[in-house]
Design a protein that fits this description.
about 375 residues; alpha/beta; 2 domains; six-stranded parallel β-sheet
Length: about 375
């Protein structure tokens, strides 16, 4: 399908645009250090500002309603002039929007500070819609959520996709039908949410490598000891995916336990040990598949990234960066690993999305896309 793009709008000067962005980035001591999503939000905002629009920026920050968007202000101001208002609805917000000049941008407070956002409250969506003449969704990463700012506001305003949203949709659509040989690398946790994806993509991708915590589920399904490793609340014993020939599993893993942190074969984990990462032998075994591939789709780290077990994820990133494959990567920790190595330009496309990416790859659609279609 062809989405209506913000670039299709001819009458922009002086118009008010509600731009839903995906600026959900952590602030450490009030400072935003990771600018990946900041940079990806800029093209649409800058495009509208340069054409004389009045841009109202909508976003959420984390899960805590008390989180503020204020730390985002200085990060955004490195790229574009923008002001901040302390609120989402109310007279203060109305006043700030009313006094906006042509070619300016205003950042509202955390949408999730209002419970009506996640409840997809119709009255809340209708109120916010009064702030604008047009609605633009540039938040592909949260477009799998049926929240007021994603599916509610489009009911009341002419609605369009932002520049980054269009790019996400276009690039992810390319890997739905990969050029062969193709390789899917899937990490992270929560097997149940990824099971439909593994089932489908193991049919039309030549190989699927399973890493992260979901690899623990597969290893246990094969009858291996996984000790105290993180597992999903579902058994894969007897699941045909476990024995599927084109699904690749770790041949060695990094474990922690009474023996300290060490690397062992996948079938040599002790009952008091915890799998923390895939081993170097696994990366060596995966490398030929990476080198041969023409399409690589990767979502999720291969180890417990947040606990510092990032060696396999970074090694995998380096091999993909050196390959000639068209590579599409998503998931916050995976992108962070790539950025830490300075390899952003060596990949085909880095997606802002994690869960939304997985849902789009599975269903070919998202609630946010449907809302724009309607």
């Amino acid at each position: 399908m062809k989405l209506r793009s913000v670039e299709d709008i001819t009458d922009i000067y002086g118009m008010r645009f509600l731009v839903r962005t995906s600026l959900d980035v952590p602030a450490i001591d009030g400072v935003v250090e990771d600018h990946f999503r900041i940079r990806r939000a800029i093209p649409t905002i800058a495009y509208l500002v340069e054409k004389g629009a009045r841009v109202v920026i909508l976003t959420h920050v984390g899960r805590d309603p008390k989180n503020s968007t204020l730390p985002l202000l200085s990060a955004l101001q490195k790229y574009i002039s923008v002001k901040h208002v302390d609120g989402v609805i109310g007279d203060k917000v109305y006043g700030a929007i009313a006094h906006m000049k042509e070619g300016s941008a205003l950042l509202l407070e955390n949408l999730r500070s209002c419970k009506e956002e996640e409840e997809n409250d119709d009255a809340f969506a209708k109120t916010i819609a009064t702030y604008g003449d047009f609605y633009v969704n540039d938040a592909f990463a949260v477009s799998h959520r049926e929240h007021a700012s994603i599916v509610g506001i489009p009911k009341y305003l002419p609605s369009f996709a932002g520049i980054t949203f269009i790019e996400e949709y276009t690039e992810l659509s390319k890997v739905l039908r990969p050029e062969s040989p193709s390789l899917l690398i899937l990490g992270g946790a929560k097997f149940k949410t990824k099971e439909p994806l593994i089932e489908e993509y193991s049919e039309h991708y030549n190989h699927v490598f399973i890493g992260g915590a979901i690899a623990n589920d597969f290893l246990k399904g094969k009858g291996y000891e996984v000790g105290e490793s993180l597992l999903s609340p579902v058994s894969l014993v007897g699941n045909p995916l476990v024995e599927k020939e084109n699904i690749l599993l770790p041949i060695d893993v990094v474990v922690g336990g009474a023996r300290g942190v060490q690397q062992v074969k996948s079938d040599a984990v002790k009952s008091d040990e915890k799998i923390l990462d895939v081993g170097s032998g696994t990366i060596d075994a995966l490398t030929p598949y990476i080198k041969d591939a023409k399409t690589i789709l990767w979502n999720g780290p291969l180890g417990n990234y947040e606990a510092g077990f990032d060696a396999s994820t970074k090694a995998c990133a380096e091999h993909i960066a050196q390959s000639e494959a068209y590579s599409v990567v998503g998931g916050g920790d995976t992108i962070t690993a790539i950025e830490s190595l300075g390899l952003e330009e060596s990949f085909g496309f880095l997606s802002t999305a994690g869960g939304a990416m997985l849902e789009f790859l599975e269903k070919r659609n998202l609630p946010g896309i449907k809302a724009l279609e309607q």
